[in-house]
Amino acid sequence: MKVSVKVPATTANIGPGFDCFGMALSMYNVVTLEETVYPTNGLEINIISNSKDDLSAITIPTDKSNIVYKAVELLYNYTGQVVPALKINIKSNIPIAKGLGSSASVIVGGIIAANKLLGNPADEAAILSIANEVEGHPDNTTPAMLGGFVLSSAEEDGSIIHRKIEWPDDWKLTICIPDYELATQISRSVLPEKVDLQDALYNAKRCALFIQALHTKDSALLKVALDDKLHQPYRTRLVPGFDEIATSLKDVEVLGTVLSGAGPSILVISENSRVEDVKNTVKSTWEAIGIRSSVKTVDIDTTGAVIL
Ligand code: HSE
User: Fold this and answer.
1) What is the 268 CA–ligand 1 centroid distance (Å)?
2) pLDDT tens column, 116-169
3) Rounded to 5 degrees, what are φ and ψ at 215?
């Protein structure tokens, strides 16, 4: 039996919602799992990328240290079973190490495919919890599975509390992807262990304002709410061009410019009428400092992971 699962990319944090806010985007990976007797070592992993550039600097392991295999193994263990000989194909359309949830996408894809192979023993809560165990934070894995804009909190017992909130159609998402990579591990390593109380309060207030802005579709409030003092001030030095782009986009009157996940991609939220100006401004600002980029306006994916 063979199962394929299509899973969206995600953008996490979205300003103040560090490790909590995330949103699924209309870019997809497909993970296919097949129980087989073919591989001599019990495992064959093939990665098929649309763009050769995606795989240029990052070597993805194709042995049992691969995150998809680890996720699949946790699901089999959860059901009290041993992983059989497996063939895993990953069709990769989400750029790797760009802050777009490529790892969350394949983790979720692997778990859902394995669950289907086993006759669906794990429910949604168990799948989300296993995905978080592999990824380490739920703000990419939860929207990758459920679609939409999602709040998620990983609890001490491993469960994930989550809620989906409707994203206003008028708030367009432009994803700006530079040609360099930034591993989440490196981007997390520059964060302090402890933060100033005033900074923590600043973000708590911004998160509250953000949710109210969403519920009332209040663009002016969103503009204020998108600011952050917990992660971006430490990370933007790893993202050449971020400060210049954020400054230039103030003239374009966007709603906000934030790091996508741990970076280096940048998410710009704007009204539709500003989208072309956003793209031109970001491209030319990066070009001026010698950075090639891909800049595209994407839709929010409201469906999440789908078994094909
Ligand atoms: N919330 C995580 C971080 C997302 O910012 O490190 C990583 O994609």
Assistant:
1) 17
2) 999 999 999 999 999 999 999 999 999 999 999 999 999 999 999 999 999 999
3) -65, -30
Report CA-CA distances (Å) from 23 to 101, 117, 146, 277: 10, 28, 9, 23
Q: What's residue 55's pLDDT?
A: 45
Beta strands at 86-92 and 21-35: parallel, antiparallel or unpaired? antiparallel
| Cα–Cα distance, 87 to 35 (Å, whole number) | 6
Residues in contact with ligand 1 by the CB-under-6-Å rule are 12-13, 18-19, 99, 137, 139-140, 184, 188, 231, 261-262
Of 156, 160, 168, 136, nearest in space to 261 by CA: 136
Q: What structural domains does the chain harbor? A: 2-166+301-307 (3.30.230.10), 171-298 (3.30.70.890)
Q: Is the pTM of this model over 0.85?
A: yes
Query: What is the signed CA dihedral for 115, 157, 97, 249, rounded to 10 degrees?
Result: 120
Residue that is written with structure tokens 């799992």 in the block: 33
| Per-residue pLDDT, 61 | 86
